[in-house]
Specification:
Layout: E1 3-5, E2 9-14, H1 22-33, E3 38-43, H2 51-59, E4 70-74, E5 85-90, E6 93-98, E7 112-116, E8 146-148
Parallel strand pairs: 2-3, 2-4, 4-6
Antiparallel strand pairs: 1-8, 5-6, 5-7
Amino acid sequence: MEKINRSQIISLLTDFGLKDAYVGIVKGVILKIFPEAKIVDITHEIEPHNILQASFVLAGSWRYFPDGTVHMAVVDPGVGGARRAILVVNKNHFFVGPDNGIFSQVIDDKAKVYHLTKKEFFCPKSVRHFTLVIFLLLPVPGSPKEKSLKRWESQ
């Protein structure tokens, strides 16, 4: 079984902008679950719903982060819809976001893609309208920093 080694770094890339509280709320939720997180903003100024731009920016930035970084990307014209969330594991980096093509430039023939449908992977209902998922990929108190990907194997 493949093991994962997470760092404490979580990068964020969104089209939320910075004129309201959404980015701050997302960071607050992350820190509530994972107080040790080191959150890095790639950008929150992607043009609204511009998946191609987001994919391009992510493709040009993720390699500069240490192994084990969780990259959360939320740019989705179908926010709040039925689109599935995915976890992409590639080159010891973890990409979390909607299944809309945003990760197309970080996937190669060795990448593993997991569709996340289990309720345990999602935020509390009070913040779910972001369609941002804070997965148990993030360590919770008392969890080992290393977990296997077994829980996603059936996805």
